[in-house]
Design brief:
about 400 residues, alpha/beta, Aspartate Aminotransferase, domain 1, 2 domains, four-stranded antiparallel sheet, 12 helices, 15 strands, about 40% helix
Length: about 400
């Protein structure tokens, strides 16, 4: 008899966003035609910028021309895109060679696939509240998980300690779901901790483009020592609106070595074994993001989402509700009013003002009592939702 992977039985019964979808579906079935203000899932609402659209059209035309046609792409990424990404880092003062950049079909895919580099006996430290896939991917692999809880007392930015140790360390900054961002000093302590313990940091930089404070690091490789202990995974989904086209990249320095094994070489072998590369058309669109024109246009789109954050933060400030995030991240993490539970608050917002957010409990036990708003929504919807939220909480509905 075939033996299935029994670790799937250790997963929670249902996924956070599946639960949200089921609740909103049930609400709409009993309230047909109702407009929902969706600020839950972190999907973008603005289209791809003009520079990207032009590049995509040009790439489609290339596929109709025998002289320009592309079949299989290099598994680790097209040279033109790897070079563009590496040059983007070099402009920020991070020295990378082109072949330390790997093109992926998105950060979510890569965060799961990258675990192939680690033996299943290795342990994973996950700072919580956390993106649920961090936990689930390691549960599926049967890996030991070290849960590191965070809270308002440390601004949801936990520090390393001699009380725990792990082989793999997840760091997400700006953080999903809390929007908190590690300072250089705080991140340096994690880099030093990883090097001292022989650990490898998986640095999720999917939201780095939302950082406006120049004192905060966009990349872990801005910090001394990171090149010997870190892998950086980034995405064009939120940076440039590629949620529907799927494109990201991973940086693995050649100096990252454990037990004589070079992780860069290992990932080349993995990609050439398990993938046939990312579509030429999508990679051409991605390369346009890193042009001067593309950078200007994506910053304009990001500014719209940043303004959404300001709208929501203004309401929470007026109400005197504690929150973090928003300024340097596309997420706002608020404390539920009057001691409400996070799913209780979700139900209140859905039923009273038709606003959909994300209950903090879905990101781990220490997220209970908190609530996440995404700022990727339509600006008009965000303004209206903010008004409704203010009136609901101001009049003491809770």
């Amino acid at each position: 008899m075939i033996m299935p992977n029994m670790h799937y039985a250790d997963l929670k019964d249902s996924y956070l966003f599946f639960n949200i979808a089921q609740k909103t579906k049930a609400y709409l079935e009993t309230h047909p035609g109702t407009h929902l203000y969706r600020m839950g899932i972190g999907d973008v609402s603005l289209p791809l910028c003009d520079a990207v659209i032009r590049a995509l059209h040009e790439a489609v035309n290339d596929q109709a021309d025998k002289a320009l046609f592309h079949g299989y792409m290099p598994e680790c990424g097209a040279p033109f895109l790897r070079q563009a990404i590496a040059e983007h880092y070099r402009k920020r003062g991070v020295s990378l060679s082109d072949d330390e950049v790997f093109v992926s079909s998105g950060a979510s895919d890569e965060l799961g696939d990258i675990l192939d580099l680690f033996d299943r006996s290795s342990s994973a430290l996950i700072m919580e509240p956390a993106y649920p896939a961090y936990v689930d991917a390691n549960v599926i692999a049967g890996r030991k998980i070290v849960h590191l809880p965070a809270g308002a007392e440390n601004h949801f930015l936990p520090e390393p300690s001699g009380d725990f140790k792990a082989d793999i360390i997840y760091v997400c900054s700006p953080n999903n779901p809390t929007g908190a961002v590690f300072s250089r000093e705080q991140l340096q302590r994690w880099v030093d901790f990883a090097n001292d313990n022989g650990s490898v940091i998986l640095f999720d930089a999917a939201y780095e483009a939302f950082i406006v404070d120049d004192s905060l690091p966009h990349s872990i490789f801005e910090l001394p020592g990171a090149e010997t202990c870190a892998i950086e995974i980034c995405s064009l989904s939120k940076t440039a609106g590629f949620t529907g086209t799927r494109l990201g990249y991973t940086v693995i320095p050649k100096t990252l070595v454990r037990r004589g094994m070079c992780f860069n070489d290992m990932w080349v072998r993995n990609r050439t074994t398990k993938t046939n590369g990312v579509s030429y058309i999508i990679q051409k669109g991605g390369a346009a993001v890193f042009t001067d024109e593309g950078q200007k246009q994506i910053r304009e789109n990001i500014a719209v989402y940043k303004n959404n954050a300001k709208t929501l933060m203004s309401v929470l400030d007026k109400l005197g509700i504690w929150y973090c995030g928003g300024k340097n991240a596309p997420y706002i993490w608020m404390k539920c009013p009057d001691g409400m539970g996070s799913w209780e608050f979700f139900d209140l917002l859905l039923n009273e003002i038709q606003v959909v957010g994300t209950p903090g409990e879905g990101f781990g036990a220490c997220g209970e009592g908190y609530f996440r708003f995404s700022t990727f929504g339509d600006p008009e919807d965000t303004e209206k939702a903010a008004e409704l939220l203010y009136e609901l909480l101001r009049r003491g509905k809770v």
